[in-house]
User: Fold these one by one.
Assistant:
Number 1:
Amino acid sequence: MMIHAVDWFPTILAAAGGTADPGMDGLSQLDTIISGHPSPRTEFVYNIDDVLPTVQGAIRVGDYKLIEGFAGIPDGWYPPPNMTGSPDPNSMNPIIGTWLFNLKDDPTEHHNLADTMPDKLKEMQAKLEDYRKTLVPAINPKADPKSDPKNWGGAWSPGWC
């Protein structure tokens, strides 16, 4: 079942007898949690960013996950000894790339289907582009030297509090 963090507020609101605004990102998962009904969510955005060195984004639709651009730094995951056909994650370029995974068949995301499923890739890229059109540009203020952790006992601070 698919549940996203943005679903918590409308779910708790429904449990309290309220109704969420239809324009809200989240969906009530109350029936899913209480009665085991299928989740009303079929897709969600992991992230869309136009600020990093490359434009990047990631979405999930059904069993499929698309990652474009910066996918993060490989974490040194080591496959189990009996796993075959998995690329070395430390050899992949985390900045440039397009990855398509079937999470039902490949929950550890080690078999990139981008080259073998071009129609699914185009479908997912079109969906990501639709979401990208709704992107609200990030407000990234310049770094404030007053926020340096050395000024706050080792903790990050915005510098003004």
Note: The helical segments are 8-15, 30-35, 118-132.
Number 2:
Amino acid sequence: MGEKVLILLPTPTNKLLAQWQGPYEVVKKVNKVIDQVEMRNKRKRPRNFHINMLRKWHEPLMATSYWVQDVVHHHLPFIKTLNVVYPKANHLMMSM
């Protein structure tokens, strides 16, 4: 209990298209395949979800910023700021 999870839910615009949403908090394990999840911003009561609709939420590590200097035509330097967050969440990306 108290574990943070992502839930595979239909998108607001297309009920046949699902996205991982969250994180939400598991409040109770109903049985070995059903978890009760508190969705504070969606409903007042906790909802039950099968575990195949849930994925464990991993807190992102601290975002880091660093400066990269590029030189264009050897005389026009400009600066780009890159924000990098590790680790990458490739397992949350949808593939076509």
Note: The mean pLDDT is 77.
